[in-house]
Structures are given as C-alpha cells and as structure tokens.
C-alpha cells in the first residue's frame, strides 16, 4: 500500500523525541514535510513556517500530526481537515471540549480521519491491566502522579498559561489510563488546585472521584517532586491489588511483576494508519472532560510563586 504522506506540525520536544522516530519505523507512513515557526526543520525534509505555506507551496500530503501546544491546535486542525487531510492530534485534543466536538463535525463532513491520541493508553501494561480488572469488584483506586516540572517541561511558557493545563498536562495521561481500564464511568467529587502566585495554571492538585458503583478514587498531582518520580495507579480489588507504575510500563498483579517493552508512539501510529485505511475517526474526550470539571468546580489556593 502507498504510504500515508504526513506533515509534522510543531517541531518541539515530543515531535523530535517520539513522532519522527515512530513514523520512521512505520512503513505505512512517511514524513513528507514539517511545519514550525522557529525550528529550522530536518535535513532533507521540506520545511515551512506555517501550515498555510505548506498547503500553498509544499509537496502533496495526506495527513498532519499536530504536535503544538493545545492553545493553537483548533485552527490548525480545522484548516487541515477542511483541506481534506487526516489529522492526528497530540494530547490533549484541544484547549476546550467544544472545539474538539467542532473538529469531529468538520472531519465527518470532510470524510477524513480525526484521531485524538492518548499516548499513555498505549503503555504496555494498560491492556493487561484492563483485562485483569474486567469483572472484578473494585475497593479503591489511588493515582499518584508526582514529577519535577523543571526536568520535564523546562522553559515551556505555554504550559503555565490559560489552556496549557499546568500539572494536568501530565495528569491527563493518568486520567486517560484510568478512564480506559476501570470497568465503570467515573466523575469528579472535589478538587483543590494549587496555583503559583505568578502563574495561570496549577502546579499541584488534589482530587477525589467516584465511579458509578461507588468506588472512591483519589488523585495526587504534584509538579514539585524532586528525586524519584511517581507515575502510579493502584487499584484495590476483591482479588488483590493491580498496580501500574512508571506510567504504565510496569504492571504488578498478585501473580507477580512484569516490566514490559515501551512502544507507545509506534503503537499510536499503527492505530492512526489503521483508522485512515478503515476511514474511521477515534475521538474520546473522557480524560479532558474530567480535567475540565476540575477547572469548573475545583477550589483554588494560591501557593508560592514558581520560576523555571
Ligand atoms: P514544545 O516543546 O513547547 O513544542 C511545541 C512546538 O509547537 C514548538 O516547538 C513550536 O514551534 C510549535 N508551535 C507553536 N505554535 C505553532 C503553530 N501555530 N504552528 C506550528 N507550530 C507551532 O511542547 P511539547 O512538549 O513538544 O508538547 C507539545 C504537545 O505534545 C503538548 O500538547 C503536550 O501535552 C504533548 N506531549 C508532550 C510530551 C512531552 O514529554 N514533552 C509528551 C506527550 C505529549 P517553534 O519551536 O518552531 O516555535
């Protein structure tokens, strides 16, 4: 089959670290162009400062992968979809829920694929955890996502601005896993968001959710963690504990520990190619809904100012 010609839009950290290598390892796709206002591009690949310039003067493409901050993603996605291109959205799929719904409508009208990717759902422990949890009685769920923002997001101004999500930028990854593996729908009960005095987005958050069967779910997000980092989800059940750690790369069940091979982005691009070939879209806004609810109904506390 002819490879899907794809342009990477937004040549930042995730595009360079994950998207380019994942596409290079997938025979169903080929990077045909890149777009980024300041990045110089990659050797041998046509580069443009704007999507409009690529569409006007560039090589023919079939798809775009949008790796920009969420605040600018809607206009890029709408332009690409209206031009008949398939669209791969980095997470979160948008800065608001309604704009993602609008994109779904445009994709359906244009007859192209819209893929709202959630890379953490492709962590290798996630599907085995989901299978193990199916049919079990849940007792409790604890999510602890504590990392050092200076290590993982140095100098990323957009992440601290409105729509950048702050500590929910990694926290939404945990919610993408939980909303996939737990057998029941979950909803927010309470949230406290800790905002640095000089920032528009939270540096930490304490949240409580409940599922429709009554199981309590706690979530501890903190970007001020130094030393060992935590990306853990622990589910207590009637048959023992299921724990995903290292963001889903390590699975602990009553039967033992499994350290699994990490291939989130290769698996994401396999899914994207399948969706394109099958003329389907995949857009699940459940993780973004929970974050939106935390911003909608959470209480705020102002904490010490944060500088990079
Ligand atoms: P980043 O390093 O700040 O990169 C974002 C890039 O977007 C910048 O390099 C910028 O390009 C480009 N950009 C901004 N506005 C643009 C526009 N209008 N058109 C085209 N390009 C534009 O951010 P990142 O860490 O890669 O994160 C990007 C997205 O990926 C976020 O939604 C994030 O949640 C998600 N993500 C990040 C990670 C991670 O570990 N970093 C992991 C998974 C998912 P210039 O440099 O050329 O100005």
Topology readout:
Elements lengths: L3 E6 L3 H12 L4 E7 L11 E2 L2 H7 L5 E4 L6 H10 L3 E4 L7 H14 L3 E3 L9 H8 L4 E9 L2 H4 L15 H14 L4 E11 L7 E8 L4 E7 L7 E8 L2 E6 L4 E4 L2 E4 L4 H14 L8 H12 L1 E5 L5
Parallel strand pairs: 1-2, 1-4, 2-3, 4-5, 5-6, 7-10, 8-15
Antiparallel strand pairs: 7-11, 8-9, 9-10, 11-12, 12-13, 13-14
Helix pairs in contact: 1-8, 3-4, 7-9
The site of NADP nicotinamide-adenine-dinucleotide phosphate has 22 residues, from helix 1.
Description:
- By secondary structure, the chain is an alpha/beta fold.
- It folds into two domains: 4-116, NAD(P)-binding Rossmann-like Domain (Rossmann fold, 3-Layer(aba) Sandwich), CATH 3.40.50.720; 120-261 and 292-303, Dihydrodipicolinate Reductase, domain 2 (2-Layer Sandwich).
- 31% of the residues lie in helices and 29% in strands.
- The chain is built from nine helices and 15 strands.
- The chain has helices at residues 13-24, 51-57, 73-82, 97-110, 126-133, 149-152, 168-181, 264-277, 286-297; strands at residues 4-9, 29-35, 47-48, 63-66, 86-89, 114-116, 138-146, 186-196, 204-211, 216-222, 230-237, 240-245, 250-253, 256-259, 299-303.
- The strands form two sheets. It has a nine-stranded mixed β-sheet with strand order 14-13-12-11-7-10-9-8-15.
- The longest helix has 14 residues, at 97-110.
- The radius of gyration is 20 Å and the shape is globular.
- It starts with a strand and ends in a 5-residue tail after the last strand.
- 43% of the residues are buried.
- The mean pLDDT is 97.
